[in-house]
Amino acid sequence: MRKPSLSQIERIVEDVVRELCLSDEDAVALQVAVQDAFDVWVECVSYRKGVKGCGEEKQNC
Known about the structure:
This protein is an all-alpha fold. The chain has helices spanning 6-20, 24-48. It has one domain. The protein is 66% helix and 0% strand. The longest helix is centred in the middle third of the chain and has 25 residues, at 24-48. It is elongated, with a radius of gyration of 14 Å.
């Protein structure tokens, strides 16, 4: 399985928003939550691969 790109995830979120008929406020909240989760995932993957610049301790990884 390939890693999804952020643009692919954003398209999926847009589809979910449309399918569930979410309000603008709920749509933004979902987009922010997904973006935050993606950022944490990227940071953890980088940390596990030993990428320089990642912190020494990752509580969520």
